[in-house]
Amino acid sequence: MLREQLKKMNMLLDFKYFMEFIDSLELDIEAIFEQAPELNELPVYSLNGEKVSVFFKNEVRPHNVPILLNQSAKHPLLVAAKYITPKAKKSLKANKINYLDSYGNAYIEIPQLKVYTEHGTGKPVIPDTTKVFTQAGAQLIFQLLHRPEVVNETVRHLAHISQISLGSVSKIMNGLFDEGFLVQWNNDKKYQLIRKEELLDRWIPILNEKVLPNYKIGTYSFSGHLEEQWKTQFLRPNVWWGGEPGAALLTDYLYPEKYALFTTFEVKEIMTVLKLVPDPKGKLTVYQPFWGNPHNTAIMDYKNTVHPLIIYAQLIHSGEPRNIETAQIIYNEHIAPKL
């Protein structure tokens, strides 16, 4: 019952936003709500009598575009968002995907309507300069997304499992509260993480652009025939697959072309124990774990892989269609049920 009420409330909000977005164009466009979304389908609106399937999103960033390219729709797809980054708009237009934002920027090319307006305006719903979406913030958000129950742990515990300072934890938690991702839900001052899907979406680029580069050990090549035997030759403590090989292990759907490996081994051990060869052009990138207690199997109990959240984020950020399709499988099977 509650889920249905929330669904109806979201539909009403989407309708309100859509009509406001259309009004912001200041053009004579007749917009009509035609059909509510059915299972795994998008809501349908009409613009000057031409039906479009509308994908609503708070913000659209470049890493979202490959997902939109794979989005199934009964009618021409139109992305409606409060904010779309300049790079995302350029990519959407290049791929002939219609879009509309809250600032009167639009690209719509359907038989009964052709619009392209760009005012150079718009700002993120949550500023990129926020104290939440930093390297330290991303390391803490990872812990909160895959184990939401730790949100009420002590600051010291959160700092330990995230490998960040006590002061950073306090700033980030306050930021999450101020920006509506954290709410107090009873009189005992217990907190709950909300808007998890949106938080995950904002976390993906920060993980790939700020966290992983700082934990990168180097790039390597396999020695001998190790690449052919990667599934069996690296089954050992202190080694976890991420990215494409991690996805292959989770889904049996993807054959890796690029490899990501997380390990607590030092550089010397990477060469002597894992038999990997330093190579600036190598296809295998090795990282240190960015989470506390890397030996804790409760965190990494996924077939010698890192947590599915990390694998999903790496696949999505790659922008490669074959990775996006596999990422969706991982999201549906390992992530969505727990968000």
Automatic annotation (TrEMBL):
<dbReference type="InterPro" id="IPR019238">
    <property type="entry name" value="AbiEi_2"/>
</dbReference>
<protein>
    <submittedName>
        <fullName>Uncharacterized protein</fullName>
    </submittedName>
</protein>
<dbReference type="Pfam" id="PF09952">
    <property type="entry name" value="AbiEi_2"/>
</dbReference>
